[in-house]
Amino acid sequence: MYESLAKQGRESVHTGLAGIDSSKLKKLRSNHLKECFNLIDEMRHKLDFVARIKSISFIDDAASRSAMTAWYALETIEGRVVWIANGSAFNDKKAAEMKRLRNLVECKVERIVCLGNSELYRNVFGDLVKEISEVETMSDAVHKAFYSCNENMKVLFSPTIENGVSYETQGDEFRHEVNEL
Questions:
Q1: pLDDT category, 163, cuts 50, 70, 90?
Q2: Please, which of 48, 51, 61, 134 could form a disulfide with 73 given CB 3.0 to 4.6 Å?
Q3: For residue 13, is pLDDT > 80?
Q4: What are 142-146's contacts with CB under 8 Å, separation 24+?
């Protein structure tokens, strides 16, 4: 049972625990509890490990569509990160939300690859990150991130901003491009 839970990752376990009503927990037998956690395994695109290629790990967090969910992803991942995010033009409201990430970005993010406009990221994180670039396709984003990584780094796809494309579609596209490397 414990191995199954460990494979699902910290985010899945936290989500499962949050979803269990503590008053009902006392009534559950261990098999029922195990079944509850196994259902979490079906949750996709939330801090999912995709592949490890030449010592670089790829993590799909396509379900993260806000600054706070990106904060959680960055907080959870150990080591240096190349962050792939949905691009955005600058606006004050989004910038205020993104500023909450500055400490984590400074400590963990080596580069940011934006799918589209990088203006928001340049304004908020430009003084903290070595490189912030713009690309037009997921294929370009994955390649740019991969070839800019140092040994043992992580590539995190955490969109952070809505762009009109479903997280399932973007997550599947990210996974496909990683597997094409």
A1: confident
A2: 61
A3: no
A4: 142/58, 142/84, 142/174, 142/177, 142/178, 142/180, 142/181, 143/177, 143/181, 144/113, 145/82, 145/84, 145/111, 145/113, 146/53, 146/56, 146/181
Cα angle value 73/69/5 (rounded, 5°):
55
For 42, the token pair is: 């079906």
- Select the CATH number that applies to the domain covering 48-180 from these four: 3.40.50.300, 1.10.10.60, 3.50.50.60, 3.90.190.20: 3.90.190.20
Task: Please give the average per-residue pLDDT across 108-128, as a whole number.
Answer: 96
Q: What percent of the chain has pLDDT over 70?
A: 76
Asked whether the beta carbons of 71 and 168 are under 8 A apart, the reply is: no
Of 9-18, 48-57, 98-107, the poorest mean pLDDT is in 9-18
pTM above 0.90, yes or no: no
The DSSP-derived string for 55-99 is TEEEEE-TT--SHHHHHHHHHHS-S-EEEEEE-----HHHHHHHG
